[in-house]
């Protein structure tokens, strides 16, 4: 399973996969960080679809996920999930971050998608501690891969070198066990 996980340092918008995950907010109307990059590169069609989803269900709750087209991106779909904003760790932030990964995998399964790229959800503007976020992400991704044999590739795309180092070290430690 762990051999299906690839740590990549770079820009998630440039990689062709079935779905890239966006670290969105509950409004689904765009923002800064990776959300801004995805909407900028993908074009207005993504926002149009987000608006339709918003009209139907009133945005997206923290820990949940919705799927749209990927517009002009090389990926086929964008899965928008909303990570928790870090307060002090006592407001359910770890469980909510874990739930983001579960929600994304549920959509991959539902839509029959087999390859996905994740950004480091919540670790930018939402300030989730990077090491903790990486542990939660990799533990959950490994567990979900064990349950879903159809997924052939999971990229964890780190924009920052520091995150890439954290993820590589953690994945190596998981391989040793
Ligand atoms: N490719 C991959 N990762 C990226 C890219 C990129 N092109 N750009 C930034 N990152 P953030 P959050 C990394 O702030 O913390 C938005 O305004 C970044 O270095 O994008 O979940 C939303 O609308 C960091 O490691 O998302 C929300 O309001 C990671 O992506 C809020 O920010 C996540 O950082 C969500 O905050």
UniProtKB/TrEMBL annotation:
It comes from the Bacteria. Residues 1-175 form the Macro domain. Transmembrane segments: none annotated. CDD domains: Macro_OAADPr_deacetylase. InterPro entries: Macro_dom, Macro_dom-like. NCBIfam families: PRK00431.1-6. This is Predicted phosphatase homolog. It comes from Zymobacter palmae.
């Amino acid at each position: 399973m762990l051999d299906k996980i690839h740590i990549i340092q770079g820009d998630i918008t440039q990689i062709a996969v079935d779905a890239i995950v966006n670290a969105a907010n509950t409004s689904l109307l765009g923002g800064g960080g990776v959300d801004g990059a995805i909407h900028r590169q993908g074009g207005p069609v993504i926002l149009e679809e987000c608006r339709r989803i918003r009209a139907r269900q009133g945005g997206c709750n923290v820990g949940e996920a919705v799927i749209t087209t990927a517009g002009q991106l090389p990926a086929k779909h964008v899965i928008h999930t909303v990570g928790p904003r870090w307060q002090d760790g006592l407001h359910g932030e770890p469980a909510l971050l874990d739930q983001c990964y579960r929600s994304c995998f549920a959509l991959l399964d539902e839509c029959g998608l087999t390859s996905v790229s994740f950004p480091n959800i919540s670790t930018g503007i939402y300030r989730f501690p990077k090491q903790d976020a990486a542990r939660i992400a990799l533990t959950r991704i490994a567990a979900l891969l064990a349950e879903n044999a159809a997924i052939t590739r999971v990229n964890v795309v780190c924009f920052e070198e520091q995150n890439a180092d954290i993820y590589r070290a953690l994945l190596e430690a998981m391989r040793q066990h």
